[in-house]
Amino acid sequence: MRFRFRTPSSRKSIAARTKGRATRAVKKAVVPGYGRKGMGWAKNPEKAAKTAVHHRTTRSIFR
User: Fold this and answer.
1) Alpha-carbon distance 8 to 4, whole Å?
2) What is the distance of C-alpha 1 from the center of its chain?
3) Distances (CA, A) of 5 to 1, 12, 15, 38
4) What are the φ/ψ torsions at residue 3 (nearest 5 degrees)?
5) What CA–CA distance (Å, rounded) separates 40 from 9?
6) Does pTM top 0.70 for this prediction?
7) I want to staple 48 with a disulfide (CB 3.0 to 4.6 A). Which of 10, 18, 35, 40 is the partner?
8) What's the rounded Cα separation, in Å, for the pair 59 and 62?
9) pLDDT in tens, the chain (63 residues)
10) Do 5 and 57 meet the contact criterion of CB atoms below 8 Å apart?
11) Which superkingdom is the protein from (predicted)?
């Protein structure tokens, strides 16, 4: 587990902001549970636990 600042990625930042509304709408209609809070725990609890620890132990340079 790494304890340090997150390194911002301009490519990922732009991709996250420009993701198509239509794509999300289609996934929400087709995939049950898509976009709902807490679905990671049902899908893969071990990964969700590691992610939760990571988010609590790292800080972004923007925050």
Assistant:
1) 12
2) 18
3) 13, 16, 21, 25
4) -120, 90
5) 24
6) no
7) 40
8) 8
9) 667 788 888 888 888 778 787 888 889 999 888 888 888 888 899 999 999 999 899 887 776
10) no
11) Bacteria
